[in-house]
Queue: 3 jobs
Job 1
Amino acid sequence: MQSFFAHLTFACLSFVHVATTSVVSSRTDLRPILTDPSNYWTANTVVSFPEDPDFVNATERWTIYDSPSYAAAVTPATEADVVKAVTLSRTHAVPFLATGGHHGYTTTLGGLQAGLAIDMSQLNSVTIDNSAATLTIGGGTRFRDIMDPIYAAGFDIRKLLSGAYSSNADLFWGIRGAGANLGVIVSATYKPEPLANGGILTSVDVMFPASMNTSYFNALQSYNGTIPAKLAASTSIAYNASTGEAEILASWIYSGTREEALEAMAPMLDLNPPLVSISDVPWNQMNSATGFGLDAVTCEPDKTRSLYGVNLRTLSASTCISTFNKMATFYDAFPEAQSSSILI
Ligand SMILES: Cc1cc2nc3c(=O)[nH]c(=O)nc-3n(C[C@H](O)[C@H](O)[C@H](O)COP(=O)(O)OP(=O)(O)OC[C@H]3O[C@@H](n4cnc5c(N)ncnc54)[C@H](O)[C@@H]3O)c2cc1C
């Protein structure tokens, strides 16, 4: 694989300050600890408490279902202040959580109560070294911060996170698998790839009504073991309030020319779905311009959402069809749950 996770910088290693199955909470009064002048916080570091407007920015989450709660937040402006926040938490036995975009939905994060939020959002630097062809980002950087600069520099990051590592192997796999707080990443360096197809993707949004769900899932199953590396197919079972039925909304994206894309998608497109939208999308607009443009509404914060996932080794059409039919029955029986969906 050409992309690789080259280097991780950790502020410190600190084992298990957030239990993932039982509640960890603190009765320590954080105000005197965090406002002690001897902390010498950097000028731009923000310390906030629940009554402060800054506290909302530091802690507001995408989903509020079973969420952690905080007695205070630190938004460090420097790596040294990240270390300081972690050290103070450990010294005073206060549970803490470092967070980036607050988009994570692990329901077990509710195991942290009255803790300290270490909001990494100010550490959102994006540095591109053109000659070394590397991308270095701060620990609070969000994808939206990376997309435009890396695209403008002529690189592609779509395979970045699936690439292999080249250093700090134990840390890399540890941070991916250990759950919260194995350590706090303050920066990471990646090796991006050159732009493919001039950075243009072919995006195909398709709607299949309930009556076509069997043919769609059989077509999807036909890709088992043969799906081209350049093709990504995402399928959503959702409720359509206009038709009063369950439906399939599918977003298929191909990293290549439209001609190649349509050929790769032929088993699905040959079913003649009633609604097809085909567009050329620069990859830096991949999130906002594909999937029926639903990214913005999907990302609205502060909503109650509970998510559950399973890994599929192979996709079974009969299981998908049965799931679709169960969802259709569920939508009819529980109108209040019609915003529920399944993403494959
Ligand atoms: C609608 C939606 C679509 C998604 N689609 C995809 C997808 O296509 N592919 C995919 O891979 N994922 C996807 N995700 C999952 C998403 O990538 C993860 O939830 C990710 O953790 C969110 O990052 P965040 O910075 O918002 O995390 P946060 O919610 O801020 O944190 C999540 C976890 O990461 C830890 N963490 C955050 N920053 C640091 C740091 N600097 N150092 C150490 N630990 C840290 C936190 O402690 C916490 O345990 C999706 C999520 C949503 C809500």
Note: The chain has two domains: 1-195, 197-343.
Job 2
Amino acid sequence: MIDRERNKKLRVINHPILGKDERKKKVIIYVDDKPISAIQGEPILAALLAQGIRVNHITKKMKEPRGLYCGIGRCTDCVMIVNGIPNVRTCVTFVEEGMRIETQEGLGQWKNKK
Ligand code: FES
């Protein structure tokens, strides 16, 4: 069963094979300076989809939005700036308390850690 209640927020809460999601520990991460709740240990991309956030970066040349594509770390459609480091694949990077994530424009720029 997928929770699709508000704004197409996606989170699998009861998987037919894996069962009920019983992960309890929540952490706060910041996406474009906005705090959101995430489950400790989940990929950043999963936390974003659960909040209805689908755009991870904007392409350099065509200025087109990109988000989840392969979901296994093989493409670059999910890259974002994470703790000041550009081009981080968010589908294979796990959330940590207080993590700062930014939508990436083009190739991204290194930023000072906050
Ligand atoms: S969605 Fe392809 S690397 Fe993340």
Note: The chain has a mean pLDDT of 90.
Job 3
Amino acid sequence: MNVFQKSVALAIAVFSIMGAGHAQQGPLPFVYIGGVSMNCTSASGQTVAIYIDPSVDQYIGQALNNGYPAIILGPGFFNNVPPFVGQFWFLHECAHHVIGGNESGADCFAIRNLRNLGLVNHPLQVQQLLSQISNMRGSFTHLPGGPRAANVYNCLNT
Ligand SMILES: [Zn+2]
């Protein structure tokens, strides 16, 4: 499934294009996260529109459909996490347009695609991600941090 394209041609810091403004940016066909160009294609083959919007900072990001599939990313989060962590959450939001609403499934999709893209290069990356996830609170739809991190780790290794 040709869901993503990887480009390492430009080693630009991801959301440096975001600047310090408060306005929403987008729609964008791709974004650089940790120097990697990342895009998302929905299950029906549609290019997912990417927006950057400080109003979703507290949620990391959101996947939604406003007549077309879209992802909104919070720059306050993405500008302040290691590249691998940002790449994971981009793929998590993308997953909602590929596999649907299941949160554990979206986490699994994200970590497996990171691995398949060759972006898992060092145990420290995974450690930082798992540490972030294990501090997250659960909800009606999200496992609590510990089990959620364990699910991600299991998916990476299966
Ligand atoms: Zn989600």
Note: The beta strands are 25-28, 31-33, 36-38, 49-52, 61-65, 69-73.
